[in-house]
Design a protein that fits this description.
Elements lengths: L3 E10 L6 E11 L4 E5 L6 H8 L7 E6 L2 E2 L5 H11 E4 L11 H11 L5 H11 L15 H13 L5 E5 L7 H14 L6 E5 L11 E6 L2 E6 L1
Parallel strand pairs: 3-8, 3-9, 6-7, 7-8
Antiparallel strand pairs: 1-2, 1-4, 4-5, 9-10
Helix pairs in contact: 3-4, 3-5, 4-5, 5-6
């Protein structure tokens, strides 16, 4: 069963004659329990697609069903609420609060979502990413790889059904990139969670159970 259904989705930027379509009637279904990679050249629509799936932006046309909800029909406020509850997002640039420890960064995300048992959930998330012993460190005391693992812990602490990562290894060296890739692959084995990664990184491809390739706003390849 697909936890994400994208049906004939189009998205453009600009108005009138200046409109440029970045997604052109894209349709696909994503299932939990496997690592899904979305690849393609720059400007192919990868980030736009995951931004729509992640309820960050609404498509111009088509439907997006995530965890049984048509998020394309939600208001901006409803999308924000849905995103907080159902989506975990991992950014290339980590986006950690510099003044907070690893534990506090993860705990803050739970507090903003008004989720209880924060200490327990925070510890479990940091254990999942192998950083339980470094919870008291602040970002400047951690390597890039460790910071990205904290970002992943933050993304999964509220147990969202969908985890999206946009170029999560782009700023990492080979060793840290491989470690983060393996971690996301392990997380993707959860049969209740759908994990999709936007990436140019060839290290990620061998671990994927599905590779979707976009070019010029259309799906041109789908290997499973």
């Amino acid at each position: 069963m697909h936890s994400v259904e994208v049906r004939n989705v189009s998205l453009g930027y600009g108005t009138g004659a200046e409109t440029s379509l970045v997604l052109k009637q894209v349709s696909l279904g994503l299932s939990p329990g496997r690592l899904i990679v979305i690849s393609g050249p720059s400007g192919s629509g990868k980030t736009s697609l995951v931004s729509i799936i992640g309820a960050m932006i609404a498509p111009d046309s088509g439907e997006v069903i995530v965890d049984g909800v048509n998020i394309g029909s939600l208001t901006e406020e409803e999308r924000a609420s849905f995103r907080r509850e159902k989506i975990g997002y991992v950014f290339q640039s980590f986006r950690l609060m510099a003044a907070l420890t690893a534990e506090e960064n993860v705990s803050l995300s739970l507090e903003l979502r008004r989720i209880g048992r924060r200490r327990e959930r925070c510890q479990a998330a940091l254990e999942t990413v192998g950083l339980a012993a470094k919870g008291k460190l602040k970002p400047h005391q951690m390597s890039h790889g460790e910071k990205q693992r904290v970002a992943i812990a933050r993304a999964i602490a509220h147990t969202p059904p969908v985890v999206l990562a946009d170029e999560p290894t782009a700023s990492l060296d080979a060793a840290n990139g491989t470690q983060v890739t393996n971690l996301l692959s392990d997380i993707a084995r959860d049969p209740t969670r759908t994990v999709a990664i936007v990436t140019h990184d060839p290290r990620v491809i061998p671990l994927a159970q599905r590779v979707i390739r976009l070019e010029d706003g259309r799906i041109v390849g789908d290997q499973q």
